[in-house]
Amino acid sequence: MKHLRLLFVVLFILPLARASDPAAPATPSKPLIAVLNAYPPEMDAMVKEFGLDDPRFAQKSIKGFRFFRGEVEGKDVLVVETGMSLVNAAMALQLTLDHFPITHVLFAGVAGGIDPALHVGDVVIPERWAYHSEAAYFNPDGKGGFVVADYFKQKYPNFGMMFPDDVVSTRAGQDKFTRVPTFPADPALLEVARKAIAKLGPVKGEKSGRVLTIDVGGTGVTGPVFLDNAEYRKFVFKVWQARCLDMETTAYAHVCYTNGIPFLAVRALSDLAGGQEGKNVIDDHESTSSVNAVRVLRAILREL
After folding, report:
1. Does domain 28-303 have CATH number 3.40.50.1580?
2. pLDDT digit string (tens) for 229-259?
3. Domain residue spans of the chain
4. Of the candidates 130, 235, 139, 229, which has an alpha carbon nearest to the alpha carbon of residue 183?
5. Helix ranges, the chain (H)
6. Which pTM does this prediction carry?
């Protein structure tokens, strides 16, 4: 009888312990749209535009990542500050998907402009995302070329010793890793974005005063590099016809691809990734460009 009483106590207390564990999965609830940002100016823009500091947003922390649950434009959202870099982006998003009933993933933030037709403040919503820094680095051969390993099958032009390559990925329904050149934004969300932008009408930049380009389409690229180099910028545009470059988005798209979750990213240009004359202007524009991106994302939420 003593053993039965002990078993009853253990079975009663264990669920309570799990429920109080901040790392334990959340109790299932109504579906949520995950809204991501990566670093302080982007988070500040969401605090300002969404009112995240209002008590109507419930706050939670899991493994140090902050989550804000509430309503924006009539939609139930979970705002997540992922932190900068590919690793933080992937880790935070997978944590989000494991703990909350997420139906869609949206991102708003800043990026460096790669497309020469774009300017600081413009907003791009790419249709696909690639890694620009998945690569092999080879020794020079002393004859103007490089000693390329036998395993390597070159698909893209190289930038000196840097030979880009596709990443490998897997997902439900696959039994092995396959090469994935680009990870897609969700077609339905892209169409929603087009409708939302059409309803916005002309938007003027806060600092420039010019009408901003707000455009859907093309390719965005991501890598573990803050790019501020004109020659590499030209290379990235030549190889991927990239419109913008950042340090997180392809990781988000990759995680969503593996989990089968619709994804869309809004990036406003805070700088030209080395295409400017003189010093990079990101410090002067990251806050206003973050607001540009968040306002476009808000219009997309409104249209959903």
Report:
1. yes
2. 999 999 999 999 999 999 999 999 999 999 9
3. 28-303
4. 130
5. 2-20, 40-50, 86-99, 187-200, 230-240, 249-259, 282-303
6. 0.88
